[in-house]
From TrEMBL, chain A:
The gene is WRAP73. This is WD repeat-containing protein WRAP73 isoform X1. It comes from the Eukaryota. It comes from Neophocaena asiaeorientalis asiaeorientalis. Coiled coil: none annotated. It holds the Pfam family WD40. GO terms for cellular component: microtubule organizing center; MWP complex. InterPro entries: Centrosome-WD_assoc, WD40/YVTN_repeat-like_dom_sf, WD40_repeat_dom_sf, WD40_rpt.
TrEMBL record, chain B:
Keywords: Cell adhesion, Cell junction, Coiled coil, Cytoplasm, Cytoskeleton. The keyword Coiled coil applies. It comes from Neophocaena asiaeorientalis asiaeorientalis. Its main location: other. This is Afadin- and alpha-actinin-binding protein isoform X3. Residues 292-317, 504-546 are annotated as: Disordered. It comes from the Eukaryota.
Amino acid sequence: MNFSEVFKLSSLLCKFSPDGKYLASCVQYRLVVRDASTLQICQLYACLDQIQHIEWSADSLFILCALYKRGLVQVWSLEQPEWHCKIDEGSAGLVASCWSPDGRHILNTTEFHLRITVWSLCTKSVSYIKYPKACQQGITFTRDGRYLALAERRDCKDYVSILVCSDWQLLRHFDTDTQDLAGIEWAPNGCVLAAWDSCLEYKILLYSLDGRLLSTFCAYEWSLGIKSVAWSPSSQFLAVGSYDGKVRILNHVTWKMITEFGHPATINNPKIVVYKEAEKSPPLVLGRLAFPPPRAAAGPLSSTESEYEVASVPVSLQTLKPAADRANPRIGIGALAFSPDNCFLATRSDSVPTAVWIWDIQKLRLLAVLEQLSAVRCFQWDPRQARLAICTGGGKVYLWSPAGCVSVQVPGEGDFQVLSVCWHLSGDSLALLSKDHFCLCFLETEQGVGTAFGQRGDHM
Amino acid sequence: MGDWMTVTDPGLSSESKYISQYTSETKMSPSSLYSQQVLCSSIPLSKNVHSFFSAFCTEENIEQSISYLDQELTTFGFPSLYEESKGKETKRGLNIVAVLNCMNELLVLQRKNLLAQENVETQNLKLGSDMDHLQNCYAKLKEQLETSRREMIGLQERDRQLQCKNRNLHQLLKNEKDEVQKLQNIIASRATQYNHDMKRKEREYNKLKERLHQLVMNKKDKKIAMEVLNYVGRADGKRGSWRTGKTEARNEDEMYKILLNDYEYRQKQILMENAELKKVLQQMKKEMISLLSPQKQKPRERADDSTGTVISDIEEDAGELSRESTWDLSCETVREQLTNSIRKQWRILKSHVEKLDNQVSKVHLEGFNDEDVISRQDHEQETEKLELEIQQCKEMIKTQQQLLQQQLATACDDDTASLLRDCYLLEEKERLKEEWSLFKEQKKNFEKERRSFTEAAIRLGLERKAFEEERASWLKQQFLNMTTFDHQNSENVKLFSAFSGSSDWDNPTVHSRPRQKKPHGAPSGSPVCTSKLTKSLPASPSTSDFCQTRSCVSEYSSISVLNTTPEESKPNQVGRECTNQKWSVASRPDSQEGCCSGCSSTHADAHIEKDDLP
């Protein structure tokens, strides 16, 4: 595992281009585009103000930089550095901006969700979509980029509009039987749309592309409901995480529940591997203390090392006692993600913030639990294989694969607190983002190592 | 008390009758009056007589006494004491004989009376004790009654209390239920209220939004604009098309196409799965037929007509199977036929296996009770005993040897002493040798015996095994003979179940399928995608990928002049083999430092560029 040098970054804005060739990162008002493998700067753009959001177009030719404070979007072309585009939403304000899948249209959501403006880069046309709903996840495109589903709110009722992305024509418009629609998400095959109600009610509805209601599912009543939803990459399963600390998996044939994964705080089954991150004070071996001390040893390695230990069952995990009198209690399944091969599901229960549960989807049972020393910030699957990267806001990045677990200290001067991770398309490298720095971690294939050597040789 | 009175009354009355009788008698006889005076002091006449005269009869009143006695006796029915008078005026003479007779009679009477009295007394006593006993009994029973009554009252009280409690609990439950209902109502009402308010607010909000929208739009905001250097072409190279009804129709078409494609894909998958399952079913059926039919041969010869139906069915099926591939037609009749025949055969197989199981367990049970086992145990015990003896002997020999050596070691340098000891030792040695040889012989004998015993045990074991085999084969034979009838039975049962439509036959088949699938699936050479799940979920990624990257790390780090040695990376590779063992490659500082330094040199140019940045 190699680490690149540390680069500056602001607002955790660092993204690989969809084709994997480039890496865009932001430093204040500057947008830096680097070659993803060599990290040499390819382009450098300066925006008018602090960048708050960036997004690559699907064809990796353009980058959108949103400056919400100014109500501005600036678009840059990678091929033609001199090309520029500036979209000003004016007094309407701007709260969200995204590309349409064709990479030629930009969808801007104005303040108070007054409307969504669709700007075309090909023609001078502007179109508006009224009544978008202000919710968790109100816009979703199908994987193939043909259709856009949009949550709407009119006359105190929820609606979903399905639009054709090629000409922004309305294809279907239907009301959903929800109190307060919280989110919508297309299945990866683009034929089924999942819509779920706000946390006050456990309700998930499944609609076909043509607007037919396929099924509804409600696990329980009265208490807080759905917190997170994820489709499996094969569209076969829909995992629904809820406030009762359970993940329910629905199947795509009957849309009934196949199984229910509870997240108990104690693990008794000896078949489940519990990896426990344990602090390890660096061993003081006198013989190895060289004088003068090697450069790195003098550096930041003062932070305690840690390693994974396989804990013997029964293991009881650290649980947070949720404050019942506060809104948005720290309970329930806050995050869940399927591995790209459909074989595993990683979940995090917010009441056990230090643990990541990994479930075997083929056997429908718990496979492993990773207990970290601090709360898990985020986790992301390698897009190519069953490999999970986890960060906890500390100086380490953790990797899990069915073969085992590793924790890797990020080298470098000063504390590098990994707040977020971002995989490269190929799964060869991983961007580690801290508050104002980022670095790349190369999980080299042989070729990658070779190029790195070549580089090194050239410059020595 | 009244009860008791009535019970004892007859006795008392009879007693008093006796007494009264007695007293009336005593009036007649002054001689017996003495003894009876105490008892019957109430007789006024005799009392008077007694008080006035010391004796009843004196010299002066003989005549009167006699006449009195005569009178008395006659009144009691005795013959007169006087002779029969011939004339009225003549004084009658005393008849001595009559007097004597009377006296005798009186004496006899007296004796009788005494006897009776005695009897009565004893009876009285008896009755008294009886009464005492009864009284005791009564008291005891009364006590018992009292205690049981008390107990009863206690129990009743407890019952009452419990009932009370129960009632209270019921009340509480009801209250709770009411409370729950109330709370639910409250929640519901609050929810509706909340929704209502929300709606109101939302409406207001919408109004505001509308207004804001108008304001924003009406202002002719100059700022709302897009500045583009030049418009770019579409990604697909096409030009934007006008919105017409045609495009709408095209969109619809496309949508349905997508949906159709999805359904077709799914149908294809389901078909494939079905085909797979059918294959498995067919395979299963084939194997079942092959498994069951040879067993049928024998019974068939014996009881042809009785089992004919089943066998003919099977053969029919077999023929059908070999005939063609009707299986590909997923026509309903064929499907039904297939499932039915499989079910039938499965039932047969199941009953067969169950019976075999039963027999095996029976055999086991019997086997444990068999004599040969016990004898074998005996043998084992015996051999154990012998072994123990051998052990003891060995130990004895050892201690003797030790003693000998000690003696040898502590041999003093004194010549005479040594000499003495020598001779003594020689003697001792001789003896020991003798003993030694004896022991050896014994040991040999023991060994021999042991060997013979073990041999015997082995022989017995073999014999037993043979016997069991024989028995098993016999049982099997018998069972096979039996099964022919059982088949008939099962046939009947099955028919019955078919009529009654009970589902309990279906369940075993369902449950058994996975069990059956595996062994049959393997030889069929098609474990590829028996189910959709396994098919569309690729096999879990081989761990080697991960290992590879790991090994790359070690490789790289070792090349790039780092402290990591192959030994260091090796344990990791070994550890990776078994995930359950502890494996943590957590942050090896030395390798990372190396990486870091390597990287920093690698990206020296990047560094420069970075410096350009503020």
